Amino acid sequence: MTVLVRSASLTKYLGIARGAGLDPVRMVARAGLDQACLYTPDLRIPEQRLAEVLEASARETRCHSLGLMVGESWRLSDFGPVSLLLQHQPTLRDALAEIERYRHWLSDSVSILVAEHPGVAVLHVTLQTGRQQPGRQAMELTVAALHSLIRAILGESWMPHSVHFAHAAPADLRIHRRLFGPRIEFGADFDGLVLASADLDRVNPLADASLAGYARGFLDLQPGAGKPIAAEVRRTLNQLLPRGRGAVEQVAQSLGTSPRTLQRQLEQDGQTFSALVNDVRRELAQRHLQDPRRPLAQVATLLGFSEPSAFSRWFATQFGKSPTRWRQDGA
User: Fold this and answer.
1) Residue in 244, 231, 235, 215 with CA at minimum distance from that of residue 303
2) Which residues make Cβ contacts (< 8 Å) with residue 177, sequence separation at least 6?
3) Range 229-329: architecture per CATH
4) Which Pfam families match (predicted)?
């Protein structure tokens, strides 16, 4: 399945690329995209092509923070048809819930999971891309765009408690620190933002319930709003498995349905829940094992296994070799 995203990121990329001395038309053409995506934010383009443009541009300019700069330039209006709805949510918590509800308007790739702990809330960002690694540029763009959204709701003075990326740090952190402040962790267990839990429920003084209702009514009336249930389950599993919450009951709850209804919908699409769990685990296993810094016990946990031995048995069944041998072979 081709993962599609709005072309809004490339309309923001246009100015960043020109400022870095690139020809943006040439760069998108090399990735097989029409130049119209540089000027029209609501086209649907393959996420893979967007990632290719960003990574190639970063290599050519030697600016390893190019995706971050694109995300930094995002404004509330860049969220397209969902912008009015987000602007008039009473709290950040409500805005994040609406992003999940209407994410099909924004991206097939991005998911944001809110995990609350005493005093802090963690916004876990996951990208479903079909690649073993989403790539630095795409991930930093997404986290920076989320940061921009939060500032639009909470005010320009807001700063996160900390920012986390699973990939390694670039040589130059000046742009990261300008945007996020000093508390940035690379090589982390997750990608996303940590903020004060009180920030989730801080009142948005600009919220207007009538305008929010108007925007929601418009979005709900548009054709083709829904996504295939299997795609929604895969996206949710990518969020929940690393937190040990991959049971059908937990996935169904996250999707706002019952386990029986979820399994029936999957059967109608010729899918089973267990097969989707297995597919997502295979993708995550290959992604995490490529990182030599991750011990096998941690990889097992990130795939939702309670014991490393259970992970090793499953992996050998799936790939015909142990995870240690797979990593040694570079397969």
Assistant:
1) 244
2) 184
3) Orthogonal Bundle (1.10)
4) Arabinose_bd (PF12625), HTH_18 (PF12833)
